[in-house]
Amino acid sequence: MKKSKAKVSRKPAKKNAEVAARTNPPRIAIAIMAAGKGTRLKSQIPKVLHEVGGKPLLEHVIRAAARVLSATDVYAIIGHEAESVRAAMQHTGVNFVLQPEQRGTGHALMVAGEALARHDHVIVLSGDAPLITPETISHLLEFHLAQRAAMTLLSADLDNPTGYGRVLRKNSRSAEVQAIVEEKSASPPQRKIHEINSGFYAFAVKDLYAHIGRLSTDNPHSEYYLTDMAAVLRRAGKRVVAWKTPNPGEVLGGNTRAELADIDHFLRMAKVDQLMTDGVTIFYPATCVIDADVSIATDTVVEPYVQLLGNTRIGTGCRVRSYSVIRDCEIGDNVTIRPGCVMEDSRVGAGALLGPYSHLRPGSDIGEGAHVGNFVETKKMKLGKRSKANHLTYLGDAEIGSGVNIGAGTITCNYDGLHKHMTLIDDGVFVGSDATLVAPVRVGKGAYIGAGSCITDDVPEDGLAIGRARQIIKEGWARQKRAEKTATSRS
Ligand code: UD1
Ligand code: CA
């Protein structure tokens, strides 16, 4: 009787809802729980700032969320080390909700009540589960809306469900859920269930906040569990359903260092696979560390044990040899980077040749076809086209033209203990070995600097500067010295 009544009253309601949804789409928010300490990591750094694939856990989740909704509808719930988490995530443009005391996942949603009040539905994500994709978030939302549920949880079948909450379904064929039971409170038969609660949910905001006050802390952690909302809402006669994802890999959480390493490995392998599909050769890919935002054009070869980090972009036909660590660099086409180079925030023109063991510090701009060789350190400088600095050199705060030869051991003395000064070297200059250029100083076009010179004054175009003591010869001096030594040892 009750059933048929519900059926009759449902149809027109559904129609009305459809009309309403078309004219007045539901207002959706995403809340990301990110306030926990992460006790199992035994770390000074808050859990959600631990990195996988070169980015904090939370940033992965925020990025996925911000591809489903605008960042202004995304709320990160922060608490433990809130200010450092806020500072690290400010650039994403999401909102922050403070959970000053961390009294459980249910409590995290309690404190977000005010912020979520102007929305109809909220998708809840975990800040420590970074593999979630925008597609899965969208599926969860669609399923939730289509089911007209008060609560929809994303579940997954895991071969090893240990540590996760288990989903208790009404029966095996129904989408409806009775309850979620946490591992610690589960009975032995419940622990045998492989369908786990992923920690991702969708809630009707009204239903959630009408009943969230019924959560209790009567559990082994004495916390408010968001998972208990399943049983609470069911008892209130609300519809609670589960949608099982076909991609269980996306639900993995980084609660321990071992889990973080697994997730990192997964992301790194996905990245190198994608690059290889796109036409990049990578030898021994498992040894290379390549961040998600790195781009590499076709026919570039990456040798074993290379790290390409941050926003590095590499052109076509390059070769990056072993043991180079490159962060935030823009590298043109056909560049060769020999082993052991360390490069940061620098630009390298097409056809340039670097290394082995070059150190490009931030602000280095290496021109097309230029050479930077072994044990050469550069910083805030420009080296023009086809110029060469091949051996044992420091070039900082310098502007060097094209076709310049910088001899072995050349040093720009850019720092006087208080200020930095510029060294300007015009096109076609030849700097002999072991020159020290005391900045500020300018060497004019086509000039020569004699080896071993200490250059303190500007050198005019096409001139020769020699700044060293004149050599003197003392004939027979060594012979005489040896004779004196023999005489004293005899006496
Ligand atoms: C939680 C679920 C479990 C599920 C698992 C999936 C509960 C009680 N259990 O367990 O059913 O299988 O996720 O990964 O929810 N957080 C806060 N404020 C708090 C406590 C936690 O924001 O007061 C945040 C954490 O920073 C974390 C997320 O909530 O990002 C989940 O908390 P965590 O302690 O990792 O829960 P699990 O034990 O993994
Ligand atoms: Ca977790």
Give an overview of the whole structure.
With 491 residues, the protein is of the alpha/beta class. 24% of the residues lie in helices and 28% in strands. It is built from 11 helices and 37 strands. The protein has a 23-stranded parallel beta sheet that branches. A 7-stranded mixed beta sheet has the order 5-4-1-6-10-7-11, with helices on both faces. α3 links the parallel β4 (74-78) and β5 (95-98). It is elongated, with a radius of gyration of 33 Å. Calcium ion binds at residues 126, 128, 253, 255. Residues 33-36, 47-48, 77, 79, 99, 102-105, 107-108, 126-129, 164-165, 180, 182, 196-199, 225-227, 253, 255 line the site of uridine-diphosphate-N-acetylglucosamine (UD1).
Oligomer: single chain
CA radius of gyration is: 33 Å
- Taking the alpha carbons of the first and last residues, their distance comes to 130 Å
Q: Give the ligands present.
A: uridine-diphosphate-N-acetylglucosamine, calcium ion
| Structural class label | alpha/beta
Shape: elongated
Give the % helix: 10-25%
Overall pLDDT level: 95
Total strands: the figure is 37
The number of distinct helices, counting runs of at least 4 residues, comes to: 11
Biggest sheet character: 23 strands, parallel
Which blocks of ≥5 consecutive residues have pLDDT under 50?
1-11
Measured by DSSP, the beta-strand proportion falls in 25-35%
